[in-house]
User: What shape does this take?
Amino acid sequence: MTEPARVEAFDAVDVIRAQRDRTGNSEAALRWMVDAYTREYVTDAQMASFAMAVLLNGMDRGEIRVLTDAMIASGERMSFAGLGRRTVDKHSTGGVGDKITLPLAPLVAAFGVAVPQLSGRGLGHTGGTLDKLESIPGWRAALSNDELFAQLRELGAVICAAGTGLAPADKRLYALRDVTGTVEAIPLIASSIMSKKIAEGTESLVLDVKVGSGAFMHDLGRARDLAQTMVALGTDSGVATTALITDMDTPLGLAIGNANEVRESVEVLAGGGPADVVELTVTLAREMLALAGQPDADVEAALQDGRAMDVWRAMIRAQDGDPDAVLPTPRETETVTAPSAGVVTRIDAWDFGVAAWRLGAGRARPQDPVVHEAGIDLHVKPGDSVAAGQPLFTLGAADASRIPRALEVLEGGWAVEAVAPATRPLVIERITA
Ligand code: URA
Assistant: This one.
């Protein structure tokens, strides 16, 4: 005997129309839409249409909460309650040269706190933490839940691939948004990020919301709205959440790519590294440790005296990587020099992100490999004075044919002028509940 057909409680077209016409959907209708999409009853075309209506018309806080809850309910919920350590996570909305997770996770873990960093891969111009770490020979991104818990218990820090069980509705919806021009909607970004973080079961969370040319949010007003929305979602769900709004008009640090970003992170763990990477690492570590009950932790000392480095080395070894391995370097390089003496006034995050991506550091399709040694090394940052002929940045690729297209996108992406630029601070605002 065949099973009777399931009677669906709502009709997708009605839900889409209500979102399009701003007449409002009930909580039950929104929950059904997410559930029916996860079951593949609602089609990609219907969900794309719904997502576009959300992008164009927005959602109120109540609707965003329902959407987030529905995405959490689509999968498993983890709990770190039995770990015997406080847990605190960090999430960045994504930027160029953003390798902060690499030094930050071992630094915070050096204070006895557990830092579960369930991370992703890069798509488009922003890099992925797992892609960067896979530059280390042998390093393994996929861990079982047992391995993840054991590593957190022993070392405190783990950076690994997020399993497929957390918020599977988001996994489908994010891939769909990526190809339908609906990534930038604040309700969709907030529910996407927070559903994964709440389902993961962290006790507390620090959000690094990027604003600028290399970020999803190009203006401060929208970045603030996103940050406030996510802080409210986390707090209402019992996750102590703080957000920092930070600059992404300029790439972070000097390295943009994969292997070179790991190298720069190790410099920070060794007590050196570029000032902006150190500043953001230390600021985020302080926020995380304050949420974990250690507001007076001396984080700079843990970078200087090798405690954070010790955790890093153990963390890489635990995932079969060799922390002493020589990282790959590009075979083909080209250096761009200053045409005249002056001050560097612009290194545009978006243009440099796209150029690094064209060199092979990023992927165009999820199934593509990344070239670990490809990327860009900056020799200067905005505000630096340069002499005519001084190196500004070096492009690196495995294949010389990739270099001209990267140079093309960099035309207009940097400037050397007579007058120093007005700069804004790296950490622009702090948002709390
Ligand atoms: N990161 C996510 O996980 N989701 C988004 O929508 C944007 C950034």
In short: The chain has 16 helices and 13 strands.
